[in-house]
Write a structure and sequence with these properties.
It contains 12 helices and 9 strands. It has a 5-stranded antiparallel beta sheet with strand order 1-3-5-4-2, sandwiched between helices. The two termini are 66 Å apart.
């Protein structure tokens, strides 16, 4: 039973800063990767460039979009001052993407025993999908690389969906970057994942289609990780600010003269009072922040529960697979036994029909001949079986012809010619 899945995901890149960060990651331009301990930098030399890029990602992006930039700058010359934007401002403030990162991989076992050339061929098949199914041109591909320095080989392909579209407002064609021209929505993405699977299978790769809906779970997990990182930083900052405020207040209290108490008021220095207010303010922020952290903890619990359910499902599936495997072994044994019995029956039938054709009268021979023809039509007898049954009998020629055995018909013809010569 094959349990290797092909995986294709699409992750939008919304601004040039993120594009630069992704470029540093994909091209391994950082000295260390603390955020991803799975990267083995000593193996980075084995990474496979499918579409190379010698420049930085943003520089490469500018090369692809140079005509778009020129068009934008020309348009800004006649734009109102309060509406003018630089090319970068327009891109970064737009709701559109600046690029799209396509990720291709498979379950780890698929890559076992694959050579470097095998993996390159697989990656080239993925790129055929990018060009022929998604519809990108080679000029729109910024960079494509197979990472061999992580646990599972995977292909990163970054594309710039630069297109010319008709603008109704100006009644002209304009450049724009539109991912929707290539991946319209989630339904279309699912259809494309079907086509990706079909393309791989057509090239001989033994893979199942990836699990439907797994992309959303992947994105949720990514969002959760980002949120966790954000709240970790915020909690650290809130605690740091509160600690500073408490230390400052403590110092102020030490420096202050004796505080005057009265049944109606307390008299302290203004800067000490300000420090007290600061502590109160920071404490309020910490308290206001607590529900957000609590919410994150609950989300973590949900993910833990989901993980446990998946583990249970996985365990159940393993038991099912074991059960199916045992049943399959049993069926194979039964099938082998049935095959032996069937072969014995067919052999017995052949002998029986042959005896009838050799010893029976004309009526019996006609009935037997029809039974042999019926057996041939039902795939019970092969043409060789028909030959074994009928050769040397009065029905030899009729049955040879019925089974379309031209070679044997030729032998019969030769026999007749030899017989006529002797006569």
């Amino acid at each position: 039973m094959n349990l290797n899945y092909c995986i294709f995901r699409s992750e939008p890149i919304y601004n040039l800063h993120d594009l630069a960060q992704i470029g540093s990651h994909n091209k391994r331009e950082k000295k260390t990767y603390k955020s991803n301990p799975n990267i083995k930098l000593e193996l980075t030399k084995d990474n496979i460039e499918i579409k190379s890029l010698t420049e930085k990602y943003v520089k490469g992006f500018y090369n692809i979009t140079k005509d778009y930039r020129k068009e934008h700058e020309e348009r800004m010359k006649t734009e109102r001052e309060d509406r003018k934007k630089t090319f970068n401002q327009m891109l970064n403030n737009s709701k559109n993407v600046v690029a799209d990162e396509l990720l291709f991989t498979a379950t780890p076992k698929f890559f076992e025993n694959m050579t470097r050339d095998d993996i390159r061929n697989w990656a080239n098949t993925c790129m055929e999908f990018v060009y022929k199914n998604l519809g990108y041109t080679e000029d729109q591909v910024l960079h494509a690389i197979v990472h061999m320095d992580e646990n599972t080989p995977h292909l990163h392909c970054v594309v710039v969906p630069l297109v010319r579209k008709f603008d109704k407002r100006t009644n002209t064609e304009r450049y724009t970057i539109s991912k929707k021209q290539y991946i319209k929505d989630k339904v279309h993405l699912s259809q494309l994942q079907d086509k990706y699977h079909e393309r791989l299978v057509s090239k001989g790769y033994d893979l199942e289609r990836g699990i439907k809906g797994s992309d959303r779970r992947h994105l949720k997990m990514k969002e959760f990780k980002n949120a966790t990182r954000y709240y970790e930083n915020k909690v650290e900052k809130v605690n740091e600010d509160l600690d500073k405020s408490l230390v400052e207040l403590e110092d102020k209290m030490k420096d202050s003269k004796e505080i005057i108490f009265n049944k109606d008021y307390v008299k302290i220095k203004k800067d000490t009072f300000d420090s007290m207010n600061k502590v109160i303010d920071k404490t309020k922020k910490a308290l206001n922040f607590a529900p957000e952290v609590n919410k994150l903890v609950n989300t973590a619990k949900d993910y833990t529960t989901s993980h446990q359910k998946l583990e249970e499902e996985n365990s159940y599936m393993k038991r099912e697979i074991k059960s199916l495997s045992d049943r399959n072994d049993k069926l194979e044994k039964e099938n082998k036994s049935l095959k032996e019995i069937l072969e014995f029956i067919i052999e017995s039938l052949k002998n029986f029909f042959r005896k009838l054709l050799r010893l029976g009268n004309e009526e019996a021979n006609n009935i037997t001949t029809n039974k042999v023809k019926q057996g041939y039509d039902d795939n019970l007898f092969t043409d060789m079986d028909v030959k074994d049954i009928s050769v040397g009998t009065t029905k030899e020629e009729e049955l040879f012809k019925y089974a379309n055995m031209l070679i044997y018909q030729s032998i019969i013809k030769q026999k007749k010619e030899i017989k006529m010569i002797w006569i």
